[in-house]
Amino acid sequence: MKFLVIAQDLRAWGTSEGIVSRSFLAKLRVAYPQSIIDVVYVKQEASYDQLYLLPVDSIKEYVLDVKIPFFTKWFNKIYWRLFHVSLIRNHIRKVYQSCFAKIDYHQYDHIFIRSAGIEHETILGAKNLPILKKAIVNFHDPYPLFWYPGSKTALTNLELFRLKEMFEVVTQAKTCISPSSLLSEDLQALFGSRKKIYTLPHQYDQSVFDLLNVENGFKKNSKIMISYQGAIQFGRNVELLLDAYQELVKGNPLYKENTEFVLRLKGIDKKKLVLKYVNCPNIKILDFAIFTDSCKEQMHEADINIIIESGPLYSNILVGKAPFLAATQKPILSISPERSEMRRIVKDPQYITSCADKEEIKQKLENLIVNRMSSNEAVYPFGDYFGDENFKKRLDAILLETNVNELQ
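and the corresponding structure tokens:
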């Protein structure tokens, strides 16, 4: 069997899509060890991505020039207001389209097109190309940005025309997938797709990362270290969690002496949080770390890892770090809205709590701290959801376009 994977992000650090796309290639090799796996890697700037670690047969890298001509930028100021179409986005799409049109897609049995970020350039770049009829299109995130949980983007005519453009891609594609069952359901309804949109969860595979020479990273100073690493955007509320932890520390000397909460954050509110909790030495807010350092901290130093989903009302996104945190075999606490993907895949209620209820957060965090103080045994909050067997079973169903409702 011959696979072609078109990827937009294979970075070994910095983005969740890079981590899960690299891991997807590793899991694809495990699932089909005798297959041919070729990769077309398109990006907008040169980068060193340790591609030699990927278990594939060939990789072709393309650095695309998406610089917008001056006239296009100038004329677009008028054009998009009149016709609700962005000439800038169209220019970028045509750059990707020109690259994809040169691919000899006939030689492959299956083609995956993986998106990255919120613009979905790789997916839109295949629009109206014959390669799309053989392609399994992967939505990393909802499209357009208005439908992203926690987004503050207005629903404009431009957004609606973008939605129409993606509808054409979904119609032309062989099939579509997403990493979240909720997102698959939402996309199915949003696009009115007559084709099934399948769910293939994110994966993590340590073999495609160089974790041997990691020297940086925070080393814990307390018996119990709680860790959260991520962005504070799209409705993620870290303050309620920190307020709950601060109350635990102030209310019980045992927690003050034996615990610390280490956060690596990125986002516009980071400085505000540093000032708010400056008088609580148990809370340490650090700069964001590259994945290798983050991996070391959460794998070897942390005792409890935190997930904060988008919100506050719902989250149809599968957090990119979920499969990695599953591999740590440590307790997690997911701060989640009522309707969320984590609530579907985490079956034990001790590992999940409401993003709007400080008392529930406080109670469940305290329970995890107490349990971890007395036991370091491996735990499996996600069961076998991110296991190789589940991945292979779902992938087989997608490749054969089998109706497997019980897997969704």
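(Above: one complete record from the training split.) The mean pLDDT is 91.
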